[in-house]
Amino acid sequence: MTTTEPSESRTIGVLIVDDDPLLRSGLAMMLGGAGDIEVVGQAGDGTEVAELVREHRPHVVLMDIRMSAMDGLAATEELRSRPAAPEVIVLTTFDADEHVLRALRAGAAGFVLKDTPPAEIVESVRRVARGEPVLSPSVTRRLMDRVAESDHDRRRARARERLDLLNERERDVAVAVGEGRSNAEISAELYLGVPTVKTHVSRVLTKLDLNNRVQIALLVHDAGLLDGRD
Question: Which pLDDT belongs to residue 69?
Answer without folding.
Answer: 80
